[in-house]
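Lay summary. Proteins are chains of building blocks that fold into shapes, and those shapes determine what they do. In this project we predict the shape from the chain. Here is one chain we studied, written as its sequence of building blocks.
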Amino acid sequence: MMLATLVLFLFPTLGLAGSSPWVAAWATSPQSAGNGEPEFSLGGQIIRQIVHMWVGGDELRVRISNEYWKIPLQIGAASAGLEESGPNLKETSISDLTFRSRGAVTIPAGKAVWSDPIKVPSWTVQPGSNLAITLYLSKHFDCTTAHKLRIQTNYVRAGDRSWTKAARWPRADNAPSCFVTGVDVKTERSMRVIVGFGDSLTDGDKSTKDANMRWTDALSRCANSSERRSASVINEGIAGARLIYDGSRISSGLGKPAA
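And here is the predicted shape, written in a compact code that computers can read:
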């Protein structure tokens, strides 16, 4: 028998008077490699990660995390764009991400950064669209800050700072979500944010890959089925999550299954 943990948190979004508020449109819980070896490494490569946006807006920012590594993480370049099909993007939507107006960023160990907000007149993020976050890592880094359950297909190729649409992007079915942990958008009005937190049933284990069929996705569809979109639903579940041990693997003691 599987014991599922389900917690819902409901937060209002906050904004300054007269300003559009930032709303969490997508997020995932970062995990560490624990005592084991990192499951994935990158070096001189570009990783393109697809995230599904249940909330839209014409301005966005991306959170990149180095919270579970002991050395600084160097991102040589980064971009965001709307998915056309698979790894291919709508060419007019590709926008460079900057960090304090610079294209590259070094994230200290144990820290995370938000990109500068990007606002592109030629495109907006529509509710239900897929956003591609692309990172270039010129040096070798283990993917130690990641989300391990692979519900969305990611793509990795050798290369440099080029984000060309014509480039061949091999599938990386063994690649977790590396370093990218959140995307916020600016909306015209305040929205509530519902956070789903729990174990594998929340995280989406056994859910159809690339189909966005977790229960949090279903809840988002219900919450935003009318013209008046009422809430952003984000998933912070971790498969195998435990409250009294670090990590997500059952090893010994409490939680060990009976023989």
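What the prediction tells us: Helices lie at 200-203, 215-223.
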